[in-house]
Design a protein that fits this description.
single chain, mainly alpha, rod-shaped, Phage_Mu_GpJ, DUF1320 domain-containing protein
């Protein structure tokens, strides 16, 4: 995963993570790390989908922008619960991240990560072989 529960708490605060991760039927005031990790895994998969064409995924070294994107996407997913709805700010941040990822996929923006190289791409057919044994000259007279 490109972000951790600790990244989420650091970025959005413990109170918000408790509110967003707390199951609807539970009244305790502790965050649910498993629920946050599921949202982070989903965010990572979404990010990989956009990066796959240009970068080797999963990324070995995760740039800070990708950590932020994973946190924003996971927060939005967590907010879509029975008792909660994403705020307008969450919607705008998610839209901004998706646009940013689309621009990465299109090659308009680059990140510091290992390139996927030319895997799956071809520059046309390639031929190789040995020199011809027979030629018009050697077959003359046959």
């Amino acid at each position: 995963m490109y972000a951790t529960v600790a990244n989420m708490v650091e970025r959005f605060g413990n109170t918000e993570m408790v509110r967003l991760s707390m199951p609807e039927d539970r009244e305790t005031e502790t965050l649910d790390p498993a629920k946050i990790e599921v949202a982070l895994a989903d965010a990572t998969a979404l990010i990989d989908g956009y990066l796959r064409g240009r970068y080797k995924v999963p990324l070995a070294e995760v740039p800070k922008d990708i950590v932020r994107a994973a946190c924003v996407l996971a927060r939005y997913d967590l907010a879509k619960g029975e008792r909660t709805e994403p705020t307008e700010q969450m919607r705008l941040e998610r839209k901004e991240v998706i646009t940013w990822l689309e621009n990465i996929a299109k090659g308009l923006i680059s990140i510091e990560a290992a390139s996927a190289g030319n895997f799956g791409k071809s520059n046309g057919p390639r031929f190789s072989g040995r020199p011809a044994i027979f030629s018009d000259e050697s077959l003359k007279g046959w």
